[in-house]
Structures are given as C-alpha cells and as structure tokens.
Amino acid sequence: MILTYAAFISLGLIWGSNFIYMKWAAALISPEQIVLLRVFFGFLPLAFTAWHKGMIDRSQLRHLPHFFVMSVAATAFYYFAIVKGTQLLPSGIAGVLGGSIALFTSISSLLFLQTEKFNRLMAIGVVLGFVGIVLITRPWEGENNPVNLVGVIWMLSGAIVLGLSYVYVRRFLSPLSLRPLALVTWQMGLALIILLPLTDFSGIGRILENSHAAIGLVVGLGVLGTGTAFLLYYFLLEKLGAIASSGSTYITPVVALLIGWIAGEKVGWLELAAVILILTGIAMLQIGRQQAAHQIPPSHKP
Q1: For residue 116, what pLDDT is reported?
Q2: Which terminus of the chain, N or C, has fewer Cβ atoms within 10 Å?
Q3: At 243, is the pLDDT very low, low, confident or very high (cuts 50, 70, 90)?
Q4: Number of Cβ within a 10 Å radius of residue 104
Q5: What are the phi and psi torsion angles at 215 (to 5°)?
Q6: HSE-CB for 75 with a 13 A CA cutoff
Q7: CA 193, CA 213: separation in Å to the nearest integer?
Q8: Would you say the C-alpha torsion 148, 152, 157, 158 has a positive or negative sign?
Q9: pTM
C-alpha cells in the first residue's frame, strides 16, 4: 500500500511540474518542436514496457482509425494547445487551468453519454469550476489584464478536446477491451509519425543552450511527465480504480502554482481562490456522478 500511495503522490507532482518545463523550453524552441520531443521521449518507455509485456500485436491494427483519432486529438493537438497556452501565461496559472480537464471531462460525459445523469450537486460543481476559471483569467480587467486571454483560450481548448477524447474512448475503445498500455502506446507512436513531417526542425538545437531547459524537456516533460506518468496512472488504475486514481489531478494545480511562485511568479488571493473553487467543483462533480450512478436501476446500467 505504501508503494501505491507513493505512486499517487508522484503522479501529482510529475504532472504539476510539467508546466515549468514547458515554460523553460518555450523560451528557446517552438511549441511544435516541444511537442515532438515530448512525444518522442515519452513514447520510448511506453513502447519498451508494452513490448516487454507483450501487449502489442497485429490484431490491433484493425483499430487504427480509433488510434489515429486519439493520437490527433488527445496527443498532438492537446499537447500543442497546452504548450501554446503555457508560452503565453505564467506557468502556475497555466497549471491551474490545466486542472480544469476533469471539469470538461465530466461535462462532456454528461452531454454525450446516455449513462451519465445530471443532478443538483453536479450542477453546483460545474458553476464553481467556471467561477474559478473566470477568477483566474480576470476578464473584467480589460487591456490592463496581466493574464493573456489568448493563452487562456489555448489552455481551455486543450482541456475541452481532451475531455471529449475521454468520451470517445468510452464510446468506441472501451468496448474493445484493449489494455490501456497498448492503447496509449499506439496513440503516442502514431502521434510521433504525424508530428515528424509537420515539424520545422530549424533551430531545434537551441534547446541545448540551456541545460535546465534541455533536461526539463527530455527527462521532466518527456520521460517522466509523459511516459512514466502514463505507467504510474495505469498502475494506480489497477490498484485504486478510475475514480480514486483521478484524484491525483487534485495535486497538479497546487504543485504548478507552488512551483510558479518559487520561480518568481505572482500568486495572490485570486489565484488561490480559483484553485479552491476549481478543485471543489471537480470534487462535487465526482461525488454527484457517484450518487447518480447509485440511483440508476441495475437494468439501465451498461
């Protein structure tokens, strides 16, 4: 059990630190290059583990169209969107907005999955989550707003697309009973193939000018933040189940905001209030979903 708790905390810390690594790298190379390197170095440990456990086989090739959709939406576009957002925002604020993924996942499930039922607790959770997002983006400040609204749009676009991708998995991939490690290995591998011809390699070597940025991108964002993070998440899925495992996302915004503060970014009461509201909203959504699931008659459950 100690190992499980260690994996839970480690996953939250790893995901929370991703934003500062993106911020460092974005000062030297393009978002496209960051995404390509992240996917490449994240794919390596996943591919090795999947090969070692014998989880990849030719029979899975018939599911390539579904793998392709996930590689474009949940990997290539999502990673690009959060890099663009982090490039334009303080890393801490980007991390807090990144924490809204669970909020948009819940909303997408309610809208597109017939098995999801909406209740009052979930409605309050949605409202609190969006109030938190408004607080941290400060749209009322107009031209004097220190928060770049284009960066906010990129972050929220990534969160929305990733939330929709989970619905896609539930609808089209979950019935196939594929092992999660096999799915994400295909997803990352195809994303790498897609990104290679689309990426301009000019100046990519500038990342080596700053050892902190280079190590952060390769090791922090790639090997740990992508490859190892997926492995930890699937380990927790087996040990704790989906709902408990997703609790590690509660740590992510707090860690990102703390790291940003240590790096010299301003953290005030608005940022703290936004984190509390977003996390409270997500918690209420999850509790509400559990209550709704218990109220569904057994004959209506999938």
Answers
A1: 61
A2: N
A3: low
A4: 20
A5: -65, -40
A6: 30
A7: 24
A8: positive
A9: 0.88
Contact call for residues 45 and 223 (beta carbons, < 8 A)? yes
Instruction: In whole angstroms, give the CA distance from residue 51 to residue 18.
Output: 26
CA 266, CA 91: separation in Å to the nearest integer?
A: 11
Lowest mean pLDDT among 192-201, 238-247, 258-267: 238-247
H or E element that contains 65:
helix 64-70
DSSP element (H, E) containing 32: helix 31-52
- What burial class does residue 188 get, using C-beta atoms within 10 Å of its C-beta: 0-12 exposed, 13-18 middle, 19+ buried? buried
Entry field: residues in the chain: 302
DSSP secondary structure letters along 171-189 = IIIGGGT--HHHHHHHHHH
Mean pLDDT for 164-171 is 86
Task: Name the packing angle between helices 120-137 and 269-295 (round to 10°).
Answer: 160
State the Cα–Cα distance between residues 21 and 10, nearest whole angstrom: 16
pLDDT digits (tens, 9 = 90+) for 113-141: 766 677 888 888 889 989 999 998 888 88
Q: Residue 192 half-sphere exposure, CB side, CA atoms within 13 Å?
A: 17
Higher pLDDT, 234 or 184: 184
Q: Crossing angle, helix 2-26 and helix 78-88, to 10 degrees? A: 60
Q: How many CA atoms lie within 13 A of 300 on its CB side?
A: 11
Q: Scanning the structure block, which residue is given the tokens 């608005």? A: 270
User: What ranges in 113-148 are assigned the alpha helix state H?
Assistant: 120-137
Q: Write the DSSP symbol of residue 219.
A: I
Alpha helices in the chain (DSSP H): 2-26, 31-52, 64-70, 78-88, 91-98, 101-112, 120-137, 149-168, 180-198, 211-215, 229-240, 242-245, 251-262, 269-295
Angle, nearest 10°, between helix axes 78-88 and 91-98? Answer: 140
CA distance 186 to 67: 6
- Which amino acid, residue 267? V
Distance CA 175, CA 155 (A): 30
